[in-house]
Amino acid sequence: MAITKDIEPSEAEFDLEKIRALPAFDVADYLDSPEVLAAYLTEAFADGDPALIAVALNAASRATGMAEVASKAGIAREALYKALRPGSQPRLETIMGVVKALGCKIVVAPMEAQIPEEIEEK
Hints:
Layout: H1 16-21, H2 34-47, H3 50-64, H4 66-73, H5 77-83, H6 92-101, H7 117-121
Helix pairs in contact: 2-3, 3-4, 4-5, 4-6
């Protein structure tokens, strides 16, 4: 096993040109099956952050095809882009339409029971 020396942040060197040359990561490139897409959206909805949900729906729509999703959701493509852009607050009707157009559904389940600390300590 190799032993590594902890590097202080001030000692770290970064080649900014190499960093800039890295390809941009786009999760939409990896949403290549209905199962992967559904799992990605499930995690986004489980997190509960509306901004994350909009980002996830945007990526899933791009992976599937914005025009196709917009058509199936019954909205204009431009309206879909606007509804799912960063900082947007899409209406529930739009979210439901997009989820359905993506071939998914939203399922509500009870949250896992939280055990109070005083009971856990006994």
